[in-house]
Write a structure and sequence with these properties.
The protein is of the alpha/beta class. The protein has 6 helices and 11 strands. Helix 4 runs parallel beside helix 6. It is elongated and about 60 Å long. This is Universal stress protein. It holds the Pfam family Usp. InterPro entries: Histidine_kinase_KdpD (IPR052023), Rossmann-like_a/b/a_fold (IPR014729), UspA (IPR006016). It comes from Oceanobacillus aidingensis.
Length: about 230
């Protein structure tokens, strides 16, 4: 009886938005839901219609869907064509009887709010009946010297045909590509300097640094592109 009562009393909602931190938030929510033995829901909100998502956003959504299936999440919810993210979260929270919400530390930026902290403050006012968890997110896209990166773009890595053992960044599909992922370019540089992040074959996020289109870090993970499809 205690197990059933726990599922009735508590229900968790994880809010994810564009970027590599969604997986970490979902896994954090899953651990909490296991501890409390309660349902877990995952929500993403976007102002655009679903069929107008760019390749990057669509890629993250598909990965989140697969992760939710793997973790036996109750439901993955997409609220597209929604310009008011707080309203969408509030509506979903009411619909699914949510008692706890998990968002990322930098949510006020991710959810397109202008004033620092405004998103959290507005959300707290709207959902005063719900516990809000603000989780520290992966900060690898901001280095120790406060380097800031542009919005990520779809990119690929392939072996340099002229320099053995060297790998180069590419932006077009090719049978020579070995890795597919997202490239985050440093702001303020004319060259392709930045970070290439990709999901390895075990579903974990890995990254390698890029300097003038060349991988300067060691690619320890095996290629994540299935060559048999080319």
């Amino acid at each position: 009886m205690k197990k059933i009562r726990g599922r009735m009393d508590e229900s968790i909602l994880v809010c994810v938005y564009y970027g590599p931190n969604g997986e970490r938030l979902i896994r954090r929510g899953h651990k909490l839901a296991q501890m409390m033995d309660c349902p877990l829901y995952v929500l993403t909100v976007d102002a655009l219609p679903y069929d107008e998502f760019d390749a990057d956003k669509s890629g993250f959504v598909e990965h989140w869907k697969e992760l939710c299936e793997e973790l036996d999440v109750e439901e993955f919810i997409i609220r597209d064509k929604e310009k008011r993210s707080v309203k969408a979260i509030k509506d979903v929270a009411h619909t699914y009887n949510i008692t706890q919400i998990i968002i990322g530390q930098s949510a006020q930026n991710r959810w397109e709010e202008i004033t620092k902290g405004s998103f959290v403050n507005v959300l707290l006012r709207e959902i005063s009946f719900i516990d809000l968890h603000i989780v520290s997110v992966d900060r690898t896209l901001k280095s120790t010297d406060d380097t800031i990166y542009e919005k990520g773009v779809r990119a690929f890595i392939q072996e340099d045909g002229e320099v053995p053992g060297q790998y180069r960044l590419k932006f077009t599909r090719s049978k020579h590509n070995l890795y597919e992922g997202i490239f985050y370019k440093e702001i303020g540089t004319d060259f392709n300097n930045g970070v290439f992040k990709f999901v390895n074959n075990k579903g974990k996020t890995s990254q390698v640094h890029i300097t003038e289109n060349v991988c300067t870090g060691e690619l320890k993970e095996p290629p994540n592109i299935d060559k048999s499809i080319h």
